[in-house]
Amino acid sequence: MGVRFEEIILPDSLEEIGRNAFAWCQYVKHITIPESVVKIGKGAFAGMCALESADVRVPWIEWRRYGKAMMLIDKRRDELLLCTGGEYVKIPREVKSIGEYACAGNKELKRVKFHNGLECVGEGAFSNCIGLEEVTVAGVEELGGVFYGCDNLRKVKLNRGLKKLEGTFYACRSLTDVNFLPEGLMEIGESTFSNCWNVKKVTVPDSVRIIGDEAFAYCEALENVKFGRYLDTIGEEAFAECSSLRRIDLPENIKVVDDKAFYKCTNMQEVRSEAEHIDFISEVFGQCERLKRVILPNSGVGGLSFLGCDSIEVIDIGGELDDDGVGTYDGVYYMQNIRRIPKVACVYLLPGGKRGVWRMPENWWVEMSYYELLKAVRQFDSIVCPGEHMPILNDYNPYYGGHERFKEALHDGRADGKSCVLVVRKEMREKLLQKRKEDEMDVWSMFDEIVELKDE
Hints:
With 456 residues, this protein is mainly beta.
């Protein structure tokens, strides 16, 4: 918060005005700068949006009118230090850079136009200009958090030489269609469009290689994203909590999708990509509670990519189960066991929306968690184990309530009141029934109904 006074008169002995010296003095209407001043720090006049007049005695500082706007310009550095008033501001050609927060909080401003010779725009230069509706950007190669908090910004034109955006349009809540990104843009950096609540559609040009952390996070109205063909990386929480997003088609060149990139996209229903290999970091699609279809035939997944996605019905990940025990079999995704034991396949993703029968691969020794088994007996009518060995439960301990929890899942965990049926080979069925008779501690012998597998 700025100090509430209206006039600043600096002494004749003053040589330096430090960084942010009068920043956010929002009620100051007049300032006197003596001839003795030889240095002015960055952001010294940031956010002084009420300034109406200035007595500037320093020969290299100019205070002058451009249209209805008033500008304070450092002629040594060709830098715009402050701009107040005026509905339309066209940056003068002699200005090569715009200082930090130079026009921040200018409530009168509606339109801004840059020129091709502009080289740099400081952080927050036009931030919180709540009346700003239209910007035309030219000259610069990078833009930081220049327009954040411009609530009424609706129309944006960006130059083709622009390479990177970062935090540029954060919380610009009147934007609805991000279709203005120029070909040649390489990176949509951190928080560029975060909290743009009304954005419904995003078109990413082919030139973009990186979408940074939280770039489109919390865009709750976002329904459609068209990615560029050469996109390489999607950062952490890039589209987190985009609750209107229903489908994602990742491009063929994508390599990395970082932690929680699509976290809590609660209406997401389908994910597709033909990419050869995607490095999914941790909870990429975590808590996408309505996700039903995951089609990644040429790529595997890792970490906890689909944690909390309990509605998945159809998956095709990594193609068919290969010789390393990686791939999809009967709608369940398997990964190679960490000990790399031959012919052992580990259950990695058992779709929560899959129903009816779960058939395991015949020529593999299946490894799974006890948690996955509890989940399976609640959702399937029958579990078919056609192999010579029963699956390995890698975290099961019968002496710490394991049996009781299993019985509860088997009998009380199903809405239809039925119990899951175990289907095994004849010789395996006989072994399990013998264990039951001898009251051995074996979870597989506890199924109420153990059925012999018939030749198909």
